[in-house]
Amino acid sequence: MHFETLAYLQTGTPRQQEAYRVLTQYQVLEKLSGYDPLLIGTIPLNIDIESSDLDVICYWQDQQEFIDTVRDSFSSLKDFRIREKREIVVATFRLNTFDIEVFGQNLPTRQQLGYRHMLVEDQLLRQYGEDFRQQVIALKRQGYKTEPAFGKLLKLTGDPYEQLLRFE
Questions:
Q1: Could you count the other beta carbons within 10 Å of the beta carbon of residue 74?
Q2: Which tens digits make up the pLDDT trace of 119-129?
Q3: Confidence (pTM)
Q4: How is 125-151 classified by DSSP, letter by letter?
Q5: Cα–Cα nearest to 165, from 147, 143, 138
Q6: Phi, psi dihedrals of residue 126, rounded to the nearest 5°
């Protein structure tokens, strides 16, 4: 799968190329390499809008070690903030034109919901084509989150986060 590395971003849209430059220049994934980091979300899928951030998911086995690594690596950056909620750690900061969110939990990255949703959404975007992609973007500009936008377009009933996983 091409989402395993950042290489595909180098030849993508201008925003994807900029994401590649920022993530590599600041060595974001390298600093998190002990936690199997993956870039997920709207920018890899080319359904981002102007306010979309870069989402990096991580798998930690020692929560405090992960927090310490994130703090040591990124706390000096603009708007750095870190919070813990149960078994989840979320750090946010700004690099150049991007807000970055680092999301960590004690679950392998390829099993995390964000990654699984992205794979399903990629499959659906390929299946339904450019018009569908533009409709997703239009809904996002209206304030929809990604999964609810897909749910609306696919006429899914119930929780779109759960319903999208039926396409796995």
A1: 20
A2: 999 999 999 99
A3: 0.94
A4: HHHHHHHHHHHHHHHHHTT--HHHHHH
A5: 147
A6: -65, -40
